[in-house]
Amino acid sequence: MAAYDVAVIGAGPAGSTAAYRLARAGARVLIADKATFPRDKPCGGGVTGRAARLLPFSIDPVVEDVVDRLDCSLRYRRRFSRRARAPLAFMTQRVRLDHFLLTKAGEAGAEVREGTTVDPLELDARIVIGADGCNGTSAKELGLGGGILHGVALEANVPHEARFAGTMVVDIAAIFGGYGWVFPKSDHLNVGVGGNESEGPKLRAELRRLCEEHGIDPDSATGLRGYRLPMRRAETKLARGTTAVIGDAAGLVDPFSGDGMYEAFLSAALVTDAALDVLAGRAQTLEPYEAAVIRRIAPLTNAGWGAKRAFERFPTAAYALARLPVTFHALEKLLRGDLAHPAQARGLEKGALRLIGAVARAAAA
Ligand SMILES: Cc1cc2nc3c(=O)[nH]c(=O)nc-3n(C[C@H](O)[C@H](O)[C@H](O)COP(=O)(O)OP(=O)(O)OC[C@H]3O[C@@H](n4cnc5c(N)ncnc54)[C@H](O)[C@@H]3O)c2cc1C
């Protein structure tokens, strides 16, 4: 008999929540990470409402600000501000959030090994799940992944200013193929810019500009860090036999928003269902997990590609539609998880999203 039912490699949001769910369901789980926690990860730390509601427990102990206001601009012009009827996102610091999630996995019964690099092919486990992020090697070692495109982002922390509390600042097209952000935390602000991989050399200058445009001293920035954003394509293989990849290891970052925690939490839940079926003898492989990702995550990813193309090719038209109050109502519902993907919108909201879809199709053509 194998020593473990499931071995999870990597203890970010994807790995820890998968380990938590599996252990809670009674599986014998090992979760191993090369880092020792608490450890940080370059990230805005914004947990959208839809991501938070996927979790089987509250993240309140590590929430530092609750955002219900969006302050948006297009290349720092045509600014508009909208207040949502309920929280849009919960601001966390990854150094605290990830430690909290891994502690939850341990409390649920998973065996936690920190500071450990494991060989996925040598693990004594019936099921192996790669959750080692965008720079991990498990996907390759398991013969999974492939065909992943990358975006790039650069972030830093600056001193806190009360005027940003409760607000998510997003400057669309601050960088080609992406945006800049200012996210409030309890004692600092996180600032960043992210976009297409080709924009890498411009990130430093664009981050300075973002700060200056918002009256933030760029020289006050500390902890400057760059990182990649992995985006899967249709051919990316997510499961084979009793192995699978989840979260960033599977390239599940949203191509437009650059968010990946919703996808990390959802892929963890989907792989858990597939793994429990295998352990109970109801299925032979984890391949139904890949089909579930295509059903549950791909429609949102496809909408993300569409919005990205629309803003790259026709930024003024796409932005004019995005700033309509009705579009914000749809966005609000998407961010909170009241809509699983844009195609579920109804009435005027559906009309506005369809127009953005038409701009995206024109951009693709
Ligand atoms: C600058 C930036 C800003 C972002 N902002 C947001 C945001 O505000 N909101 C949002 O939702 N998403 C954001 N994202 C995306 C988000 O950070 C990722 O999608 C998310 O971290 C994915 O979680 P994960 O668990 O898949 O991978 P990770 O968080 O990368 O965790 C992977 C883990 O695997 C471990 N590991 C790596 N190699 C090995 C190995 N060989 N053996 C064992 N362990 C290993 C690592 O130490 C790490 O702990 C941002 C990304 C960037 C780059």
Low-pLDDT regions: none
**What CATH architecture label of the largest domain applies?**
3-Layer(bba) Sandwich
Ligand kinds = flavin-adenine dinucleotide
- Trace the largest sheet across and list its strands: 6-5-11-12-13-10-14
Please describe the biggest sheet, giving its number of strands, its sense, and whether it closes into a barrel.
7 strands, mixed
CATH homologous superfamily caption of the largest domain: FAD/NAD(P)-binding domain
Query: What proportion strand?
Result: 15-25%
Q: What is the tally of beta strands?
A: 16
Describe this structure in words.
With 365 residues, this protein is of the alpha/beta class. The protein folds into three domains: 4-45 and 93-148 and 232-296, 3-Layer(bba) Sandwich (FAD/NAD(P)-binding domain); 150-229, D-Amino Acid Oxidase, subunit A, domain 2 (D-Amino Acid Oxidase, Chain A, domain 2), CATH 3.30.9; 313-364, no CATH class. 35% of the residues lie in helices and 24% in strands. The protein has helices at 13-24, 49-52, 94-108, 138-141, 203-213, 261-279, 287-296, 298-313, 315-322, 325-336, 347-364; strands at residues 4-9, 29-32, 46-48, 65-67, 69-74, 77-83, 89-91, 111-113, 125-130, 149-159, 167-172, 179-184, 188-196, 222-231, 239-240, 243-245. The strands form three sheets. Strands 6-5-11-12-13-10-14 form a seven-stranded mixed β-sheet, with helices on both faces. Strand 15 and strand 16 (243-245) form a beta hairpin. Helix 8 packs across helix 9 and helix 10 (325-336) crosses helix 11. The N and C termini lie far apart (55 Å). 53% of the residues are buried. The mean pLDDT is 96. Residues 9-15, 32-35, 41-46, 117-118, 131-133, 136-137, 153, 155, 192, 194, 227, 229, 247-249, 253, 258-261, 264 line the site of flavin-adenine dinucleotide. Flavin-adenine dinucleotide is lined by residues 9-15, 32-35, 41-46, 117-118, 131-133, 136-137, 153, 155, 192, 194, 227, 229, 247-249, 253, 258-261, 264.
